[in-house]
Structure formats: structure tokens, C-alpha cells
Amino acid sequence: MDNDRIYLDTYVLQKDMRVRMPKTILANLPIVKGCSKFDIFLDKAANEIILKLHSDGPQEEDTIK
């Protein structure tokens, strides 16, 4: 497992496809409820969904290893 990853919590995927975000992300990321956006990536090889805080600035090419 990646040393930079911090386990926050486990949640069930809701029937309407929502996933609740743990409140601890407010303390760990510079986000605002109802305003912050996330980019969503899928790593099929690792069977992972990755949420990355969206940046409105110039985008660098993101690669998932």
C-alpha cells in the first residue's frame, strides 16, 4: 500500500450512486462543502477509484501508475 495514503472510513454506495465523504477530509484537504470539485479516475488494474481535488488552473497531464 502507498505510504502517502491515509485510510479515512468505509461507506456503502447508495442506490442513487452517491458516496458520503468522511468529515475528516475537511481537516485534511483545503475543501469547502458544496463548492469543491473532484476529478475522478479509475485504475482498473488496482481496482481503485481515485478522487483528486480539481484545479481550475493549467492542467498537467495526470498518469496513474
Written overview of the protein:
It is a single chain. With 65 residues, the chain is mainly β. The chain is built from one helix and two strands; from the N terminus they run αββ. The longest helix has 4 residues, at 25-28.
- Quickly count the helices: 1
Structural class: mainly beta
The outline comes out as globular
- Mean pLDDT comes to 84
Helix-strand topology string:
HEE
Please report the distance between the alpha carbons of the first and last residues: 13 Å
Unreliable runs, pLDDT <50, ≥5 residues? 59-65
* Biggest β-sheet strands, sense, barrel: 2 strands, antiparallel
**How many beta-strand segments?**
2
Cα gyration radius (Å):
13 Å
How do the strands line up in the largest sheet?
1-2
Roughly what percent helix? under 10%
Percent of residues in β-strands: 15-25%
In brief:
It is built from one helix and two strands. The chain has 65 residues and is mainly beta.
Give me some keywords for this one.
2 strands; 65 residues; globular; mainly beta; disordered C terminus
Question: Secondary-structure map with pairings?
Answer:
Elements: H1 25-28, E1 38-43, E2 48-53
Antiparallel strand pairs: 1-2
